[in-house]
Each structure stands twice: as C-alpha cells, then as structure tokens.
Design goal:
Length: 486
C-alpha cells in the first residue's frame, strides 16, 4: 500500500471517548481518523447479540454519534463481514492502519486473529489495545504458572498490581475529509419488540454514566457492603451495561475509587467491597479465556451427566414470572421491563430454575442473554454455573436459595415485590411473600384470587429442594474425586 492518508478507528464494545487507548493511539498518529462501527455478521457465531443488547446498542451508538459531532467526526455505520468492510474502507481512503479494543469472547478472539493477520498481510497494520479489562487474562497466573481456579487467590494476586493511568478525553481530532457511505442506524434490525418498556429506566452515553458513577460514589458507596444485597433500595451502581458496552472503563473506576477513599477514609469498606465485585468481573473473563466452552459445558464436567427436566411449559412460566413465588416473579418482571435485575435476585431466580425446577442452567443463561442489557458472555456463563454448583468457586450443591426466606431477609417490607407485582400491593407484610398461605378473607380484601390474578405455587419448596439434592448427590462423589486431583 502507498503512503497512508488516514487511519481507521474501529469502535466495538468501547463506545466512549474518555480512557479509550485505541482512540488515543489513533489520534497520536497525527493522521485523519475514520471512525466506524460494524454490525458484525459472522456465520457460526454461537452467541449472536440478544434482543435487549441490540436495543441498548442503538441508544449507545446514538450517544456516541452525538459526542463525536463535537469533533466534527462522523461515525460510519456498516453491516456485514468486518474484514470485508475494513478492507473496503482502507481501499477507499488509503488508510494504512486500523485500531481497535480487544474483546475476549472465544469466538470473537478467533475472528479478530483472522482479521488482524489478513490486514497485516495486505500491508494494513492492525493494532489492538486493552480497554475492556484491568488485566489481560493471559497475564495473570498463580505461583505454579497456571490459571487461577478460585476467586479469592485471584483477587489477592491482582489486588495490589499497578494499573496504568487513564487516557484523557481528546481535546481535538482530525476527521477524514473524503466521502464514505454510512448505513442508517434506524434501518438496522436491532429493535426488540419489548423495548419500549425499558426506555424509561435508563439514560445513555458517556455523560449519563459519568453522572451515575459520581452519584453512586457520593450517595451509596459508604453503605455498599451492607446494602448491596437489598433489592428494595437503589443501593447498587447499575454500571454493568455501561461496563459491558465500554461506555465507562474499569480503569477509571479503579482509579476514581482509590482517589475518593484517600480523602474519605469512612469509604474504605465500601471501596474494598466494590473493587471486589469489579475483580469478580475480571475473574469471570479469566475463566472464559481458559475455558472457552464455559457457556455450554459445565466447568466441573461431571455435572454434564445430570438429567435435567426438559419442560418448555415450566420454563416459560419461570420466564414470564408466574411461578407463584413473589420474589421470583418480581425479579422476572423487573428483568422483562427494565432489561436488568438486582444481583441478589438474579441468584435467587437462577437457583429456583436449576434446583427447584431442575431445568438446566443453560436454559436460564440463554434467557438472560436475550433479555439483559448487560448480557456479557463471561459474566452470564460463569455466574449461572456458580449458582448451579458446577462452575469455578461454585456455591455448594446443597445451597438452594429459599425465595421466601430470602425475601424476608432482603426485602423485609415487601417494597421490591410490590413495585413489580402491583396486584399484590394490598397484601399485609406477613403474607406478601406467601400469598398462598393467606386466609381467604385476607386474600379477598387484598383483591387476590389465586389461580386468576396471581398463580398458585408451581412447586412445593421443601419437596423440590429434597428432589434437587437427590439429583445432585448422584454426581457429587465424582466431583469430590476430581477436586482432590486438582
């Protein structure tokens, strides 16, 4: 290729301007920039984007387009095979370099290798950067030089590792002046049919997430260790979709929270608790990198021998929040209406599906993948396996979350249940988590007709727990043998 007249910045899951190493590197070349987002069409992708993620992407791209207008830099939109599109853009513009942020899903890693090698062979230099994680998965090993298999040693290993300073938000950019065609974002097939329900629950873009982060640190960080398990309070950061789409960087979060704690020692416990959650996100990516089959195969392989129930009717009842257990149903309603669910409730609804209903964790994982705006492959797979008892650092097989006891502990006044199940709003607190146990006169006064406007329980908690334990005991001895050999 002749002397380059432009560089291509390929936006992916890094839809931000602050602390974007790929963007910074592109600017430092001093050459005009072509900014592009590609709606990738890969044959054989086992995990194409879910419906809620598609909806979030549209809003995120609209925000990014507006932010780039400040620099007079258009965001080129293309749909199709990224290698073909990048070659076409390079040919039209005489661009000699392509910059992007690395991704870590196994299928996408392989695709990026092909793209990078092919571009380099064509004389188009492709450079990738770490912008989605604090640490590259391959860079963290235990004292024996092996990948970590348990979270706590992993956390101790990375806790005090140095983190490079953030890249500043650019003051200026030089846009490419040539004419390049761009797709119409509204013409892309990214509309989820339930999206209008989610719109009122979110704000989008870098400005919105920066404000959300500041508000959390100011209002919630101090009490985070004690309140993060309470779905009845807005006590968590709800940064997960912004982190997944790269609208805020984990590096910024890491540095911000350390700086804040220096001036406010009363936030030290909150800092440690929050950073531990951020490290759990890193650990899940670590697991997926070294176990690429994690989304479909049990990390402890002997659990693949479990004979799960294959009942589409039962699965749909769980998906629609009609199980007869208010905390479960409230969580599933929150998910459907907002694209998000409180983390404590995620664990409880997952346990109910896998343990009480004995439906495979993969079925739940796929439903979350389609309905979560923070649908991240590593987090989704690792956390479902954690609850199911078949993953790394997993909950013991005999841990079965009781949705009634969990509700009484973490939603003591029933505020969360009433918010998402308004038909139960008039039930007294002592019956809000067990409407099926309320006397007929109490139900009548509250306007509840079991089986009509609220369902009877789909299973008996005690009996289904016992059945689950019997099921799991068939493979526990095999797991114990495996663990001793690790």
């Amino acid at each position: 290729m002749t002397q380059s007249s432009a560089v291509i910045l390929w936006f992916r899951n890094d839809l931000r301007l602050h602390d974007n190493p790929a963007l910074t590197a592109a600017i430092e070349t001093g050459q005009p920039i072509i900014a592009v987002y590609i709606l990738e069409e890969f044959a054989g992708n086992p995990w194409p984007m879910g419906g809620a993620s598609k909806w979030w992407l549209v809003e995120a791209l609209k925000s990014l387009q507006q932010d780039l207008l400040f620099y007079h830099l258009p965001l080129i939109l293309r749909k199709g095979d990224p290698l073909t599109i990048l070659k076409d853009l390079a040919q039209q513009s005489n661009a000699g370099r392509v910059f992007w942020t690395r991704r870590y899903d196994p299928f996408l890693i392989e695709q990026d290798k092909i793209i990078k090698n092919t571009l380099n062979e064509l004389g188009i230099r492709a450079d990738s950067y770490k912008g989605a994680l604090l640490h590259e998965p391959w860079a963290i090993r235990n004292s024996q030089g092996q990948p970590f298999r348990v979270f706590t040693p992993y956390w101790k290993a990375i806790r005090h590792l140095p983190i490079a300073e953030e890249c500043p938000k650019p003051t200026s950019m030089t846009p490419y002046q040539g004419s390049l065609s761009s797709d119409d974002l509204n013409a892309w097939p990214l509309q989820a049919h339930w999206a209008e329900k989610m719109q009122k629950h979110w704000t989008f873009g870098e400005k919105a997430v920066q404000q959300r982060w500041k508000d959390f640190c100011r209002n919630n960080l101090k009490d985070y260790p004690n309140m993060r398990d309470r779905p009845d309070f807005a006590a968590t950061s709800k940064l997960s979709p912004y982190l997944h789409w790269g609208q805020i960087s984990p590096r910024q979060i890491w540095h911000d929270i350390h700086k804040i704690a220096v001036d406010h020692p009363e936030l030290e416990n909150g800092k440690e608790s929050f950073l531990r959650e951020l490290a759990w996100r890193e650990f899940n990516h670590h697991l997926l990198f070294y176990s690429p089959g994690l989304p479909s195969k049990a990390w402890h392989q002997e659990f693949d021998a479990i004979k799960w129930q294959n009942d589409e009717t039962i699965l749909k009842i769980w998906q629609q929040g009609k199980t007869g257990y208010p905390l479960i149903d409230a969580g599933m309603k929150e998910l459907w209406q907002t694209g998000w669910m409180h983390n404590r409730v995620r664990m409880i609804v997952a346990s109910f599906l896998v343990k009480n209903l004995q439906i495979s964790w993969v079925q739940g994982e796929r439903w979350f993948w389609d309905t979560l705006v923070d649908g991240d492959l590593a987090q989704n797979a690792a956390n479902w396996q954690w609850v199911a008892g078949c993953g790394a650092d997993a909950a013991p097989y005999f841990r079965v979350f009781n949705p009634v006891l969990q509700a009484r502990k973490f939603d003591p006044d029933g505020s969360y249940v009433r918010r998402w199940l308004p038909q139960l709003g008039k039930l007294p607190k002592e019956y809000i988590f067990e409407p099926y146990g309320a006397p007929p006169d109490i139900l009548k006064k509250a306007g509840i007709e079991l089986g009509k406007n609220y369902p009877y329980p789909i299973v008996d908690l005690k009996q289904s727990r016992a059945s689950a334990l019997d099921l799991y005991r068939t493979i526990v001895s095999a797991r114990s043998t495996t663990d001793k050999n690790m």
